[in-house]
Amino acid sequence: MPLRERNVLLVAAGFAPALPQRTLDDPALASARQAIDVVLEAHEPHPALAVDRHWNLVSANSMVMPLLAGIPTELLAPPLNVLRLSFHPQGLAARTVNLGEWCAHLLERLHRQCVATADAKLVELYQELKSYPVPARAAPIAVDSVVVPFRMKLGDDVLSFMSTTMTFGTPLDITLAEIAIETFFPADAATTQKLRALAATQEPREPGLAGSA
Questions:
Q1: What global pTM score does this model have?
Q2: CATH architecture of residue range(s) 22-136+148-199
């Protein structure tokens, strides 16, 4: 059971909450913040980002923002919601090649979170995302597929990624337990080459994390 829900049950039973919830700028989480920075930086020249429980961006490496070039600034203003950005017609939806397939995957993932947590903000986000004009999946995923890819246009190129999700294995703080690090790996040689060329033009990333509620 997620740590947040354990506290809810304890309070409902008349007990004090057993697990703390700190902000990410709390000194007690300094080593965790450093660990997140290490993972994000080490993943370059491939994009990686950290999100909170509501999919708001917490931090990202230097390869993320170049992929968002040209997106309206109001969609990138804090708090930047990664899922909203993915579905919005003026966001990544306009440049996602397999939009129906990718957004169906994201909706399924968010729906599982809603069922598991009954978080009102996640449910609200789920309903919002369902309202965006996203095409249906063109075809069922092939039986020999191993991942759902994320394929996006960048100028004249199409980049293809597979993603993984990392969480802290033994968290005792609610905020830390709800941080997810999303890492993207190139799914073909052309994407690998394009990312290496793009990385050569980037300034080093400034370390540090935004706060998370």
A1: 0.84
A2: 2-Layer Sandwich (3.30)
